[in-house]
Amino acid sequence: MLASVIGNGRIDRLAIGLSGLCLVHCVATAVLVLMLASAGGLLVDPRIHEIGLACAIGLGALGLGRGIFDHGFMMPSSIGGIGLGTMAASLTFPHGAEEVLISVFGVLVLALGHDLNRRAGH
Known about the structure:
87% of the residues lie in helices and 0% in strands. The chain is built from five helices and no strands. It has helices at residues 2-7, 10-43, 46-71, 75-90, 97-120. α3 packs parallel to α5 and α4 (75-90) runs antiparallel to α5. The model has no long low-confidence stretch (mean pLDDT 79).
């Protein structure tokens, strides 16, 4: 049985197939790492953070500002403003754990303001 497997080239075909899988793995890994490195560089680009903050400020002004006129409560807008201010302050820190923690805290406070605004409208 072993002689027939070795003799008719099955082992060679299996080895070639395994080599092909190895090649695909190596190329795919290299491409993925390069893509992640590029995406990682894009994600830490200060412009991305500035654009994101500008969008958050715009949506906050529209949503939280509208809430003041709709339900008359200032607290959701005030809390959202604290979150936006915290997010803006995080941009003054160098990239690292401290910046991430401050930014995440600001985002959570802003989300709380929007949630309170949504609840006040009901």
